[in-house]
Amino acid sequence: MTTTGLSGFLDLLDKYISFDAVPRMVITDYVEILIIAVLVYEILDWVQSTKAWSLLRGIVVIAVFIFLAYIFQMNTIIWIVRNALNVAIMAVIVIFQPELRRALDMIGRKNILASFIQFNTGAAKVQDKGNIFTEKTINEIVKASYEMGKARTGALIVIARNDPLDEYIRTGIDIDGLVSNQLLLNIFEHNTPLHDGAVIIIGNKVVSATCYLPMSDNLALSKELGTRHRAGVGLSEVTDSFTIIVSEETGHVSFAVEGDLFRNVDEDFLRTRLEELLEKQEEETKFLFWHKKGKAKS
Q1: What percent of the chain has pLDDT over 70?
Q2: What is the pLDDT of residue 57?
């Protein structure tokens, strides 16, 4: 390109684009762009694994038709859209209510401000009540899970961590018994009054049986999974609990934690994960102890 041609191109570019109007970028602008990009990615990643994904696609299709109506000046459609906008916003909130609630639960469980403000009240309850399971409890749970797997006995065992599970405990029958292999086998035995539903364990005690858990609507879960697996994943999506699932059809042992399902795990892997939970629980309790001790001194 010759000098004259380059000059003409720049003049033409300057005619349509005013570089003086382009704002100068500062460090806060880059940080803001990064935050928005992360938020958009997280929202899309979350939406894609729920029913909201199909609903969102429907909204996008409607938005395209509205855009075309504006381009071609379809006044009747534009009038309807303007008058129905407020109602549509309320309808979207109602339709997405379960997904929005789950998203807020997930944000709350991340404890982003835990270093600055003490929000973790569930962890405080763990320390106050001594609700930390022991190595013996781990052995009893693992032993019972794989014995039930061999006998093709379906089971759903919830191990509480920091988040309170009172609303799910109330749906069951009070047990208040020490965790043991024999107790769990008897609860989930076929044709017994307590075998249907979930058992909830807090610390070293089975506090309730026949509990109802929320079902997951994660579209990524395999269609071959039954209600036990979906209930286990569903609870792990809204709380920080650890749920063991024993399949009645296959006898395989799986577990759900933080919205993820680990299928057909062996005995050593399950035991290792439970021991990791125990170590984490003990560390959180020590932190809370020193935190409270420091506050008492001040």
Answers
A1: 70
A2: 74
For residue 167, the domain's CATH number is 3.40.1700.10
Domain count, the chain: 2
Per the DSSP assignment, residues forming a β-bridge with 211 are 198
Q: Specify if 74 maps to a domain.
A: yes
Q: What is the pLDDT of residues 65-118, one digit of tens each?
A: 888 888 888 888 888 888 887 787 787 777 666 666 666 666 665 554 444 444
Full-prediction pTM beyond 0.85?
A: no
**Residue linked to tokens 């855009």:** 67
Q: Which residues pair with 205 in a beta bridge?
A: 178, 202
- Do 148 and 283 fall into the same domain? yes
Q: Are residues 236 and 198 in the same domain?
A: yes
Indicate the pairing of strand 155-159 with strand 260-262.
Answer: unpaired
Q: Which residues are within 8 A (CB) of 137 and not within 5 positions of it... i.e. 6 or more apart?
A: 179, 201, 203, 204
Q: By the 8 A CB rule, do 214 and 243 touch?
A: no
Residue found by looking up tokens 């990064």 in the block: 34
Looking at the fold, whether 182 and 237 belong to one and the same domain comes out as yes
Longest dimension (CA), the chain: 92
With respect to residue 138, please indicate whether it lies within any of the assigned structural domains: yes
Would you state the structure tokens that stand for residue 120, as one six-digit string? 């973790």
Is the same domain home to 46 and 186?
Answer: no
Do 207 and 174 contact (CB within 8 A), yes or no? yes
Domain hosting residue 64, numbered range: 13-95
Contact 161, 205 (CB under 8 A): no
Distance CA 199, CA 208 (A): 6
Coil, helix or strand for 262? strand
Average the pLDDT over 120-142 and give the result: 66
**Residues 240, 163, 153, 248, Cα dihedral to 10°:** -40
Claim to verify: residue 84 and residue 152 sit in the same structural domain: no
C-beta separation of 208 from 167 below 8 A: no
State pLDDT tens for residues 65-78.
888 888 888 888 88
